[in-house]
């Protein structure tokens, strides 16, 4: 047997684990930890022939590891070494080492919290920090502390910072070893990347093809970029004709994944996602081309939606990728970024528990008997907002009761290998005789899109994107199974859909598919899974919708559904203008919603200001969540109408009121009084104060007011006067009159401002003989005189009338006497008779 670096520490590892409940093992790729550690434990005396359970994050890695260990023992998988993954199990009574994927371990823990017959659980590749591996470790740790103090845990990682995980496991001992790797030359291709990742990566592959030898492993974010990059490479005439291009990503059929990692008889390029970062050894790889991007599923608690986003890889992932070139000999890694960008990479990839939908986690913990995640040990605790959102959805689905405890329905949901949304749909549909259709829908939603895989965009209108897919699957079952693409459907993906649906049908014990599906059936079943995404069209003919959770949505061009008043939005992602893009939806009618969710409908009376109509609208609404499903007009009560009018005025502002000159001057007089006598408690009549206090001064005058036009009927002056008490009203009229008498006998309007002196605009001739400037406020405040010509035009502004007569009047007389000869211009204004008329009329 070939000697590997891990062999150097095996004796110390076995001795340490024999004396400790947990061990943390740090070993880089190529050290041999995945296959050597479980085999070394077979004869460990402290296990007493108990089973060794090893968790592998990925199905392909799990099967590959099990087969490799079995071959090392000269056996087939299923004897001493076996594996269990979704859809496939190879174990027997003789199995001592069982390699399982994350979901399998989680279900096994729920069914048997003590893990009867298991002596050690190994967490391989824990640095990937998947949600299920974090959960499984928390549950194993809880079992170890409370149920099985003899259960041993081993956490193995290639890049993880081992300190925190060791502390989590009660300061578990750390064992580290060197990897078996050859030197890898890192070369940075500055400026190689662009917005089109696939194009930039294909150009990089072509540019380094001639200067390198050996198989090439190319890292891309997702399946879409892999397909496009493959197409660009195959269309390039300079590429060697015998070159083999193999895709490798999680949604590929399992056989295709296995084919991508097996040796080939010619040079090949493997286009892979981060599935190829660890565990798997791809024979022949000497060159790595790294785009520097990966796809991450992130959850937004505010929307309750997962978003698949393209992000920069971490420095640890970049190192893992580069290391693939040095597993079997010296190699080269080409990075599509520069050295400066390398320094900006995050040290590690964000743990999934911090960014994913936590509804499945909340259901698992509820089944475990935990409502507060703080009761368990976590490397990173679940974020409170995302966890609370998950529990809210579970209550909506009937998985939790009012006390937050799991229900029998919730336990049935947890037993299914499906998201809680889909599990609820499956169980409910089975009780209605629609189990087969629900299984097809669940499979279509969890596997790759059979339309998208064919590069097919929806071009015809439909009542349901999902019904279109159900019918395409049914056609494929009837015999359309030849070729790669038929009628716009990727038939190679139909096999995976059928497999997933068949497994669900077996678990639910329902008959095979065969009944014809209808839009109403599909819409109702989807509404069961996505009650928060039932949506109503904002207006007829629009592609914009309001969801029951209060968010906005907009139908994308990928959806065939158009102009449906009500839909269930199923596949969504972030879009522009704050609306989510709805890629897949299904129409549903109001009658169907009322039949299914009638118990959740609420009658809601709304009385509000409608700015577009310019009036108060009162409606009796039928609601489901935030959706208004139906509405009829009603007559508002007086109090409701007043409140709505006030809300409208706050939106429109005080300018919407009929501000007569009298009302405006009243505000100015009060403001000036408050300026001169600030301690007398004069009310604040500023715009902001009036807006804030409309309930006090305007509310009583809104009895019959329902519209913007009717606001003109309100006597604003009277309303404002009501803000003064009797004494203030008396003092205002006495000290701050609206008019002042002048020597001619005229009563002239006084123009007030908030702080400046009042203005008296009067014709010069009407003040002959007056020496003292008129005043207000009981003689305390002189007015500012705007002296006017006979034509009413300003000729002088003064606050000192005596000075004007003595020094300025002669010049004014000289200038204006010839212009206004019919009016008196006496040489002595002190003795002249004041008049507002011409000389002739005055006589």
Task: Explain what this protein looks like in three dimensions.
- It is a single chain.
- This protein has 843 residues and is an alpha/beta fold.
- The protein folds into 5 domains: 5-176, P-loop containing nucleotide triphosphate hydrolases (Rossmann fold, 3-Layer(aba) Sandwich); 184-354, P-loop containing nucleotide triphosphate hydrolases (Rossmann fold); 420-600, no CATH class; 654-727, no CATH class; 739-842, no CATH class.
- Helix content is 35%, strand content 20%.
- The strands form 8 sheets. Strands 4-3-5-2-6-7-1-8 form an 8-stranded mixed beta sheet, sandwiched between helices.
- A hairpin with a 4-residue loop joins strand 30 and strand 31.
- Helix 15 runs antiparallel to helix 16.
- The longest helix has 18 residues, at 491-508.
- It starts with 9 loop residues before the first helix and ends with a helix.
Give the low-confidence spans. Answer: 453-459
Level of helix content? 25-40%
Tally of discrete structural domains? 5
Shape category:
elongated
Q: What is the typical, i.e. mean, pLDDT?
A: 88
Class computed from helices, strands and strand pairing: alpha/beta
- Determine Rg (CA atoms, Å): 41 Å
* Largest sheet entry: 8 strands, mixed
What strand line-up does the widest sheet have?
4-3-5-2-6-7-1-8
Gap from first CA to last CA: 137 Å
Total number of helices = 28
- Report strand %: 15-25%
How many E-type strands? 33
């Amino acid at each position: 047997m070939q000697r590997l670096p891990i062999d150097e520490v095996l004796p110390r590892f076995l001795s340490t684990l024999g004396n400790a409940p947990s061990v943390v093992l740090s070993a880089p790729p190529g050290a041999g930890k995945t296959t050597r550690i479980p085999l070394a434990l077979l004869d460990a005396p402290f296990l007493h022939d108990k089973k060794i359970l090893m968790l592998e994050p990925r199905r392909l890695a799990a099967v590959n590891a099990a087969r490799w260990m079995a071959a090392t023992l000269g056996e087939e998988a299923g004897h001493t070494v076996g594996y269990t993954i979704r859809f496939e199990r190879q174990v027997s009574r003789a199995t001592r080492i069982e390699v399982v994927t994350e979901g399998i371990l989680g279900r096994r823990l729920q069914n048997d919290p003590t893990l009867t017959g298991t002596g050690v659980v190994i967490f391989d590749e824990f640095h990937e920090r998947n949600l299920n591996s974090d959960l499984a470790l928390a549950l194993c740790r809880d079992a170890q502390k409370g149920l099985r103090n003899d259960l041993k845990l081993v956490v193995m990682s290639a890049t993880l910072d081992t300190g925190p995980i060791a502390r989590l496991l009660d300061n578990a001992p750390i064992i580290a070893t060197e990897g078996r790797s050859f030197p890898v030359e890192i070369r940075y291709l500055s400026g190689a990347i662009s917005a089109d990742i696939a194009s930039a990566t294909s150009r990089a592959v072509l540019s380094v093809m001639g200067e390198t030898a050996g198989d090439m492993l190319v890292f891309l974010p997702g399946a879409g970029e892999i397909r496009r990059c493959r197409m660009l490479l195959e269309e390039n005439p300079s590429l060697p004709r015998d070159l083999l291009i193999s895709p490798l990503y999680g949604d590929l059929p399992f056989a295709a994944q296995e084919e991508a990692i097996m040796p080939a008889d010619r040079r090949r390029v493997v286009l892979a996602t981060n599935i190829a970062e660890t565990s798997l050894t791809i024979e022949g790889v000497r060159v790595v081309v790294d785009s520097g991007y990966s796809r991450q599923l992130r959850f937004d608690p505010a929307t309750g939606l997962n978003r698949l986003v393209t992000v920069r890889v971490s420095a640890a992932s970049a190192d893992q990728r580069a290391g693939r070139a040095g597993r079997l000999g010296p190699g080269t890694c080409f990075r599509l970024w520069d050295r400066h960008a390398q320094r900006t990479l995050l040290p590690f990839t964000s743990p999934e528990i911090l960014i994913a939908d936590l509804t499945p986690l909340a259901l698992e913990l509820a089944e475990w008997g935990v409502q507060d995640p703080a009761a368990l040990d976590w490397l990173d605790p679940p974020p409170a907002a995302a966890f609370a959102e998950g529990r809210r959805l579970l209550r909506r689905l009937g998985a939790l009761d009012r006390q937050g405890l799991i229900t029998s329905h919730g336990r049935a949901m947890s037993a299914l290998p499906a998201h809680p949304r889909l599990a609820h749909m499956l169980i409910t549909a089975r009780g209605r005789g629609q189990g087969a259709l629900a299984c097809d829908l669940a499979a279509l939603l969890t596997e790759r899109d059979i339309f998208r895989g064919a590069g097919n965009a929806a071009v015809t209108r439909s009542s349901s994107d999902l019904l279109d897919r159900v019918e395409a699957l049914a056609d494929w079952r009837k015999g359309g199974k030849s070729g790669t693409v038929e009628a716009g459907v990727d038939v190679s993906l139909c096999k995976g859909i059928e497999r997933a649906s068949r497994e669900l049908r077996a678990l639910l014990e329902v008959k095979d598919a065969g009944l014809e599906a209808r839009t109403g059936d599909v819409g109702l079943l989807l509404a069961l899974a996505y009650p928060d995404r039932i949506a109503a069209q904002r207006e007829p003919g629009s592609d914009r919708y309001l969801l029951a959770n209060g968010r906005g949505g907009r139908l994308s061009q990928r959806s065939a559904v158009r102009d449906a008043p009500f839909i269930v939005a199923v596949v969504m992602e972030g879009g522009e203008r704050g609306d989510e893009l709805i890629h897949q939806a299904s129409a549903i009618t109001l009658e169907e919603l009322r039949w299914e969710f009638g118990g959740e409908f609420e009658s809601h009376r709304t009385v509000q200001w409608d700015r577009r109509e310019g009036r108060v609208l009162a409606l009796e609404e039928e609601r489901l969540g935030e959706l208004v499903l139906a509405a009829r007009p009603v007559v508002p009560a007086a109090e409701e109408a007043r409140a709505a009018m006030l809300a409208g005025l706050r939106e429109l502002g005080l300018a919407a009121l009929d501000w007569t000159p009298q009302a405006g001057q009243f505000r100015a007089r009060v403001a000036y009084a408050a300026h001169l006598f600030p301690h007398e408690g004069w009310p604040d009549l500023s715009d902001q104060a009036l807006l804030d206090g409309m309930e006090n001064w305007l509310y009583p005058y809104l009895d019959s007011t329902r519209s913007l036009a009717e606001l003109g009927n309100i006597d604003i002056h009277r309303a404002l006067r009501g803000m003064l008490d009797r004494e203030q009203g008396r003092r205002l009229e006495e000290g701050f009159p609206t008019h002042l008498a002048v020597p001619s006998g005229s009563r002239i309007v006084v123009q007030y401002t908030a702080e400046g002196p009042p203005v008296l605009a009067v014709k010069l001739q009407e003040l002959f003989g007056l020496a003292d400037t008129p005043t207000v406020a009981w003689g305390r405040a002189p007015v500012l005189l705007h002296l006017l010509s006979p034509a009413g035009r300003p000729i002088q502004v003064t606050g000192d009338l005596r000075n004007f007569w003595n020094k300025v009047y002669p010049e004014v007389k000289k200038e204006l006497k010839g212009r206004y000869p019919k009016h008196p211009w006496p040489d002595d204004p002190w003795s002249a008779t004041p008049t507002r008329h011409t000389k002739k009329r005055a006589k």
